[in-house]
Amino acid sequence: MAEIDTSSSGGGKKKDGKVRAKKMSTRVDFTPMVDLAFLLITFFMLTTTLSKPQSMELNMPEKDVNKEEQQKINDEQAITIMLAKDDKIYYYEGMPPKDGEAPPNIIESSFDPNKGIRQYLLKRNARVLNEIKPLRAKLQSGQINEEQYRKSVAEIKKNDTKGIIVLIKPHKLSKYKNMVDILDEMAICDVPRYAIVDLAPAEQVILDEYAKK
Amino acid sequence: MGKVKVPRKSTNIDMTAMCDVAFLLLTFFILTAKFKPNEPIIVDTPASVADKKLPEDKVITISVDKKGRVFFGVDNIQVRRKILDRVANEKKLTLSAEQRRKFENIASFGVPMNELPKFLTLDFSQHADPNVQKGIPIDTTNKYQRSELTEWIQYSRLAYKEVTGSAPFIAVKADYDVNYPAVQDIINTLQSPRVKINKFNLVTNLEKKPEK
After folding, report:
1. B contacts of A30 (beta carbons < 8 Å)
2. What is the pLDDT confidence band of residue A99, given thresholds at 50, 70 and 90?
């Protein structure tokens, strides 16, 4: 290790009547300084939150919407997805049956990306996806930028009045993770309209029954 | 025996360049540093493909941990001061300057309002104790027909409007493993007629979006 030359005391000596400055090394040892600097770097690196957490925006339907508004959903548009215990999904097509109507044909599904609910949603939502496809190609080839892409996709979803409407109904034994996962599926499948709603009493009974198995 | 003489070389290395780099990095980290708030609970957020960043400031965070305890936090110190004034006023709590100062430094807390003065006398190291913070009550059984969480949200929104001039963002940070009803209670609170927030953010981890 280098040392700072401290052996010489005083700047010069008188000799022959001349003042002669003693040559001192101008080199300073930086090692402790580097040590200190890295120590501080480590400290700041560990305490810094470099990346802000991601977040998912959620728009809930207003609670006090009048019934007429809700009745506008067509029977063939509606898909009800029920989230149950142990990451299971049950879904059925059409509107929730009213009192006295026959129970719907409930199909079991899963979060499996290859054979689960995603494939079904992709199939049902094919029309919207086909409209989005050329836009995505344009985005990848650089013809439009991210913002234009988002805007156009939002426009397509808004205009799609005949497309699917998904009702998400989590059971009380499902996990929060399931809810986020199903919202993810909505994003992945570009489902234009979806909402999180409470289970109907009849559905509640059915899911309770399934949970006991 | 003939000795092989290794020529003596100076072991001195010029540290100047290294020092330059070190300080450059140091400057970068100091300038970009934003300290992690001291969170009393561990929340493992679920992964999601949502790639939107949480807003930088003006965020009210409602956290739910694995056991379903609810914690509340606001990110602005001035707002915290205003909220505490309000709560102390409403609930007739007497708080010393020391307790108020402590509250301003707490990023997130989960105690019922009547336990607040006692909680604020505790040391920061005791906050992580699960018996100390039981979570904010979200039931509406008290005589005002509104939960304490509702009150906290109402006061913070008012305080944010006074301090920053605009409404804050609401972030719900729940543990992936918590049962859905715990989250549903929060959502119901947010949507209740007194609060009426239909738009909020769920804090998630980033996960890669699958190719179609």
Report:
1. 15-16, 18-19
2. low
Mutate to test the interface with A, among B185, B194, B202 (most CBs of A within 10 A): B202
- DSSP 3-state of B116: helix
- The answer to whether residues B99 and B76 touch, using CB atoms and an 8 Å cutoff, is no
Q: What is the pTM of this model?
A: 0.74
Instruction: Flag whether B20 is in a domain.
Output: no
- Asked, for residue B194, whether it belongs to a domain, the answer is yes
Take residue B210 and report the two structure tokens written for it: 């699958």
Look at residue B40 and tell me if it is in a domain.
no
ipTM above 0.90, yes or no: no
Domain encompassing residue B135: 57-206
Report yes or no on A204 lying in a domain.
yes
Residue A115 inside a domain? The answer is yes
In whole angstroms, what separates CA A129 from the centre of its chain? 20
Judge whether residue A12 has pLDDT over 60. Answer: no
Domain count, chain A: 1
Which tokens go with A152?
Answer: 């156009």
Whether B8 is in a domain gets the answer no
A60 in Cβ contact with B198 (< 8 Å): yes
Kindly state whether residue A5 falls inside one of the protein's structural domains: no
- Residue A95, domain CATH: 3.30.420
* Span B161-191, pLDDT tens digits: 888 888 888 888 888 888 888 888 888 888 8
Question: Please, what sign has the CA dihedral across residues B134, B110, A56, A198?
Answer: positive
Size of interface A-B (CB pairs under 8 A): 162
Q: Within an 8 Å CB–CB cutoff, is residue B36 touching chain A?
A: yes
Angle between helix axes A31-47 and B16-32 (nearest 10 degrees) is: 20
Q: Do A34 and B49 touch (CB under 8 A)?
A: no
